[in-house]
Amino acid sequence: MDKPKFYISRYINSSWEADTDIEKTFSGLHYAKCDGLDRFGSVKNVYSETYAETSELRVYIPENVARENTDIEFEFVFDGENRRDTYHNFVDWMSGKKLRYWDTLRNRVAEMILIESIEPEEEELYGSHPFIRVPFKFKNLKGSTEKKV
User: How far apart are the first and last CA of the chain?
Assistant: First the structure.
């Protein structure tokens, strides 16, 4: 199996940009992990009622189920001489944009936005190799992901 690729596209001027291979574009950025791509938000448009005269629950189930938004959490590592510049450029590139993420590992697509604060962990050393580990928390706009076609 080839090394997985990780892509993000930004929604600008009413259309999606071409997919950006983030590890290739942002030199020194490395994908570490992702949690939440397979989460499903709670169903929010199914309603139920109980009545005193019956033990049966009355429910309304719409044709299309709507879900609460979920969180998707990534951890990226930034290394190399320009690790701080790469980190800042990456945050600036994503901020204030609707984003679409997918990777060749899971083939799931998520539309998301970065609205949480970003707090890098302390700089770490691996031997004599310094790096910054940074967690990013995104809000999944649809409450679930879709299969990449």
Answer: 19
Question: Across the strands, what pairs with 83?
Answer: none
pLDDT in tens, 34-92: 999 999 999 999 999 999 999 999 999 999 999 999 999 999 999 999 999 999 999 99
Instruction: For residues 144 and 1, give the distance between their C-alpha atoms in angstroms, rounded to a whole number.
Output: 27
For the chain, the three-class secondary structure string (H helix, E strand, C coil) is CCCCCEEEEEEECCEECCCEEHHHHCCCEEEEEEECCCCCCCECCCEEECCCCCCCCEEECCCCCCECCEEEEEEEEEECCCHHHHHHHHHHHHCCCEEEEEECCCCEEEEEEECCCCCCCCCEEECCEEEEEEEEEEEECCCCCEECC
